[in-house]
Design a protein that fits this description.
Mean pLDDT: 89
Shape: globular
CATH class: Alpha Beta
Structural class: alpha/beta
CATH superfamily: Vaccinia Virus protein VP39
Strand content: 25-35%
Distance between the termini: 51 Å
Strand order of the largest sheet: 3-2-1-4-5-9-8
Largest sheet: 7 strands, mixed
Number of helices: 6
């Protein structure tokens, strides 16, 4: 996957490397989510850093991580005001309860289904109580792989993603489903790490 995105990086940046190239609905969804985030944000699978920059410009303290060195080089060069690093979402080793929010915008789609539970559990552990995760993904009636333009990806039924989020210890808040102009069906879900129960003395 790293090699595939490295080879495609220049074309990806040209096609998607700015929030203004994204669907307006995507921008408004991420903007609305960001307004409710309190604390540092991780852009998990940040690509060339366009959504990291978007969140930073909304006033959030954000850091970006991606597996593809070419993306991180581009992000660091174009947004030197934001910390970026190369990293694998399966092995992030994040400090516990350190984040107010995680954006995983179409960045979990290349995980094998059996890997998703561990990644979501790690992201949940990195969220502070009350912190939220916004995840965007391709969807369909069945869990199935498809030929993504870069490398194989997976489409998940919305119900299966809801279940995976709950199994990771997150509370699902809301979501949306829509058809893109190219006919691909996409969805998003917002989930929250529950507040810890008060300790009775």
């Amino acid at each position: 996957m790293q090699d595939a995105y490295d080879r495609w990086a220049d074309r990806y940046v040209e096609a998607f490397g700015s929030p203004h190239l994204a669907d307006e609905e995507d921008r408004e969804l991420i903007r609305a989510w960001a307004q409710g985030v309190d604390g540092r944000v991780l852009d998990a699978g940040c690509g060339p850093g366009h959504w990291s920059g978007f969140l930073h410009d909304l006033g959030l303290q954000v850091q970006g991580v991606d597996l593809t060195p070419s993306f991180i080089d581009h992000a660091a060069r174009t947004r030197p005001d934001i910390p970026f690093r190369v990293g694998d979402l399966r092995r992030l080793d994040l400090p516990p309860a350190s984040l107010g929010g995680v954006l995983a915008w179409f960045s979990l789609i290349h995980l094998e289904p059996e890997e998703a539970a561990g990644v979501l559990a790690d992201l949940r552990a990195a969220l502070r109580p009350g912190g939220t995760l916004l995840v965007g993904f391709f969807t369909g009636d069945d869990l199935r792989p498809f030929d993504h333009r870069v490398v194989r990806a997976w489409a998940w039924p919305v119900g299966a993603v809801r279940e995976a989020l709950r199994d990771a210890g997150l509370e699902v808040l809301d979501g949306h489903r829509r058809v893109q102009p190219n006919g691909r069906i996409v969805a998003d879900l917002t989930a929250r790490r529950p507040m810890e129960p008060a300790v009775r003395r």
